[in-house]
Specification:
By secondary structure, the chain is an alpha/beta fold. 31% of the residues lie in helices and 19% in strands. α1 packs across α7.
Length: 201
């Protein structure tokens, strides 16, 4: 899966040497990224881009990726199985109160969010992601995709203004661009292949 298929990359490598230069750049700057959590917020129209994002994750991934996907509970195991076929990194649907482990990808169930505790990140029930966003965790990178929950807009806008840690799917490429357009209006940048390479390599 290539992000260019979903028009998330503004520039695509024209030849192998250019691809290698992107890989080299990511190697040079990998130490600069100490983010421990990557939060992807998605809704209608986002699954294809999610697959592209996961396609950048290498087998030695040491962070935590959490996907908050607007999907019915009975469809979540099927999504997990589909995504697991394309990546070796373990994909898990966490239980309530479960602590998240590094080197894993988590699919949040309905009515669940995450919170930062003294013991690490924890999956919690009947909480909003807005509460987590308002913790202003400096170790988090956030990606907002098509159809993301509009009720998170105020929390995301505030977080982006203070931390500049949000990337978006370009509104023109979204099935539902309500939230991504709001974030684009305040300067949130589009997610690109080279950014993902820096995060996950």
């Amino acid at each position: 899966f290539d992000l260019s298929k979903f028009s998330l990359a503004t520039e695509q490598p024209e030849n192998k040497s250019e691809e290698q230069s992107i890989e080299s750049e990511s190697d040079n700057h990998s130490d600069a990224y100490i983010r421990s959590l990557f939060l992807v917020i998605s809704g209608i129209g986002g699954p294809g881009v999610v697959r592209s994002i996961l396609g950048h994750i290498k087998s030695n991934f040491t962070g935590i990726l959490v996907l908050s996907q607007a999907i019915e509970a009975n469809q979540l195991p099927k999504l997990m199985q589909q995504l697991q076929k394309m990546i070796s990194t373990p994909i898990v649907i966490p239980e309530s109160e479960e602590y998240l482990m590094t080197g894993h990808i988590y699919l949040l169930p309905e009515n669940h969010a995450i919170q930062l505790t003294s013991l690490g990140y924890q999956c919690v029930k009947n909480k909003s992601l807005a509460d987590f966003l308002e913790q202003m965790d400096q170790n988090v990178e956030i990606v907002v995709l098509s159809g993301a929950d509009v009720s998170l807009s105020q929390s995301l806008i505030q977080t982006n203004q203070l931390m500049n840690n949000i990337h978006i799917q370009p509104p023109e490429d979204c099935f539902d661009a309500t939230l991504t357009q709001l974030l684009a209006n305040i300067g949130a940048p589009a997610i690109r292949n080279e950014i993902l390479a820096t995060w996950f390599n």
